Amino acid sequence: MLYFLQQFADTFTVFNVFRYLSFRTGGAIITALFFVFLFGPSMVNSLRIRQGKGQPIREDGPAGHLLTKKGKPTMGGLMILSGALASILLWSDLSNIYVWAVLLVTTGFGLVGFYDDYLKVKHQNHKGFGGKQRLAIESAIAVAACLMIAFTSGEPYGTSLLLPFVKDVAIDLGLFFFVFGAFVIVGAGNSVNLTDGLDGLAIVPVMIAASAFGLIAYLVGNQVYSDYLFLNFVPGTGELSVVCGALIGAGLGFLWFNAPPAQIIMGDTGSLSLGGALGTIAVATKHEIVMAIVGGLFVLEAVSVIVQVTSYRLTGKRVFKMAPIHHHFEHLGWTESQIVIRFWIIAMVLALIGLSSLKLR
Predict the structure, then answer these.
(1) Quick one: pLDDT at residue 126?
(2) Using N-to-C axis directions, what is the helix angle for 267-284 and 131-153, rounded to 10°?
(3) Which of 75, 77, 76, 71 is nearest to 56 (CA)?
(4) Omega prior to 73 cis, within 30 of 0
(5) CA dihedral of 143, 145, 150, 153, whole degrees rounded to 10
(6) Percent helix, strand and coil across the chain, each rounded to 5?
(7) Which pLDDT tens digit goes with each residue over 203-246?
């Protein structure tokens, strides 16, 4: 919205700052942060009153969770979504289709997650929304976003997969791009969802990944920098750095309430929407494979669940004491703070490895 003030820069030079992505990204961070700070306490209190017993706790989970997490309100993702969406609408160029593709997935996945959280709280059952129905809806939303991205990108990268660590290698996936892109978006959303099991565990890696992709979007969308780094220039994707800024700001604000011991739990409302947003940004910037590196912690959590379920169904034996893998370390005797901080460190290292792909070509 504020971006259009740059039209008056010739008359009022102060409005020239709205041309710059760096200024608007900074504004998006601060706006989302203060929005969550301002409305966060009232949201926490309102959700606590409305939900009563709060987030249902898995009976087969770590025993300590029945003491430390029982009764805490969920749907904290509403705080993140409201702050991020308000900031994006305020600071982004709303004529940019990439921004709307991310907003489609973020709000769509957020609504799916909200309904899932609602069912869990209402029935006091951790199962929530049916898995097949949820995946079908998420896939439809993701395919729609991929269509928007493909037609906006156009030739030569509309339906292409670009490989990291090498230059000028593009594989045209054709119609399979929409399957692949949807897989990345849905996979990212559900991987972050699986990671959200301990206080502060998911939100910091999300902010780390958003910071990395904010930089990637800025460089890929700038022809000077993309040429210098031998990156494939994708016009318009630079605007997604503002979106990443909003996610970071809202995440920082939420962490104030989610830091151990958490006052509120993110829930599927937040984890699905944030993961979906990151996946969509990765598809738009043509850095889907880098997303698997930068978001490697989320991949690890998802793989641990897949391995556990597959092993149990085929052999009747479990590979881990409990999945996702952060619960495995709880059963090994690691404290919650040890797991959370160590996983943050892993997320930071993986983000740095992913960013190295920008120069190693």
Answers:
(1) 67
(2) 30
(3) 71
(4) no
(5) -170
(6) 70, 0, 30
(7) 999 999 999 999 999 999 999 999 888 888 899 999 999 999 99
- Note every long-range contact of 353-358, with CB atoms under 8 Å and residues 24 or more positions apart, other chains counting: 353/293, 353/296, 354/164, 354/212, 354/290, 354/291, 354/293, 354/294, 354/296, 355/212, 355/215, 355/216, 355/294, 357/164, 357/165, 357/287, 357/290, 357/293, 358/216, 358/219, 358/229, 358/231
Q: CA–CA separation, 275 vs 183, rounded Å?
A: 12
> What residue has token string 């991929």?
146
The two tokens of residue 44 are: 């926490």
Residue with tokens 């025993």: 63
Separation of alpha carbons 12 and 18, rounded Å: 12
In the chain, at which residue ranges do the beta strands (DSSP E only) sit?
Answer: 160-162, 170-172
Nearest of 343, 265, 336 to residue 298 by alpha carbon: 343
Phi, psi dihedrals of residue 161, rounded to the nearest 5°:
-105, 125
| Rounded Cα–Cα distance for residues 313 and 189 (Å) | 25
